[in-house]
Amino acid sequence: MDKVAWQIAILFAGAALGGPYLGGYEWLRFFTYFGSWGTIGIVLVSLGIAWLSFQLLGFCHRQQISSLYELYLHLFGEAFASSLSVITHLFLLAYVGVMLGQQSAHLIAGLSPIWVLLLSLIVTTSFLYKRWNWIAAGTGFCLVTGLLFFGLLFLLQPHVPIPDLGYQMNGNWLIHAVSFLALHFLLILAVLLPVSGRASKAHSLRLGLGVGTALVLFFLLLGQAVLLSHWHDIHASPLPMRLISVQLLPTGGAVFALLALIQGGVLSALLLYSLAHPVTERHQLQWTPLLLVMLLAVSLFAFLAIWLPWSVSVVASGATYCGLVLIGWFVWRRQT
Questions:
Q1: Using CB atoms within 10 A of its CB, is residue 162 exposed (0-12), middle (13-18) or buried (19+)?
Q2: Environment class of 133 (CB within 10 Å of its CB; exposed 0-12, middle 13-18, buried 19+)
Q3: How many domains, in total, are found in the chain?
Q4: 55 backbone dihedrals φ, ψ, rounded to 5°
Q5: pLDDT at position 186 over 90
Q6: pTM, rounded to two decimals
Q7: pLDDT reading at 303 higher than 80
Q8: Which residues does 89 contact at the CB level (< 8 Å), separation at least 6?
Q9: Residue 277 pLDDT grade (very low, low, confident, very high; cuts 50, 70, 90)
Q10: Which residue range(s) make up the domain with 57?
């Protein structure tokens, strides 16, 4: 397995898990609420993301498409490409901001969320300053440490309950699974389009996507098992993994806070870099001013999430609809 395939696998897994995934909020909301149906949803989502990624990223590789704007230009035409690209970029920046804001509001007890947010932004800025190699390496580091941390929590479980399929037997689990797929596939496109469009071999792309899918499936199932074991304690928590860490480990709160700060900062840097790089090339803009504007936008949305927690759902819904429109239009165009 070559270096390019490994990089694609790591970036794919980091983007597909979303951010900040270490807290477990999105998994709790989209999957764990529905018990075993949520587990089925995880499997279907992983397969759906894999199929869409093979189809759409393979198409983009053949057409040498390396940005969301170029993809919109090809699928929707010049009349809609610019507007859709701006809307999508805005929602993705907002998503990064509200996720950081939500994490900062609950990460360290007794410390102001503003200070926690500043620490997260410092980590993000540091990785952006070091550019792509550090960001890719940081994403891999976060995946490895996250897997080890979740694995430790799993090993400390007395047992993992498997809810009966009669529990939460309704169509909501499928709706939430589709929503997760749309939102996180949009993150995958934003991160991988600049990479896949320039990949020299289609084999490296396919191999990377296959390994990345396996990583995502394993990670999601592991997180699901940990969350199900503590359902009654964490079902209303915005950071369920933090509560579990505090219960199971003597220094769980401190370890979780350190890992979450690094992970949130690295994934924020990954998405910001992936969004900024095509824009600088297309419009010949200077790198530093554009990143400063993006960081300012992320900061504003993060403050909004701290002051108005319901804004997290609004922003996530907007990004989800962008993903649904893109997926629906691509599938329709593929059939015609």
A1: exposed
A2: exposed
A3: 1
A4: -75, -55
A5: yes
A6: 0.93
A7: yes
A8: 68, 275
A9: confident
A10: 3-335
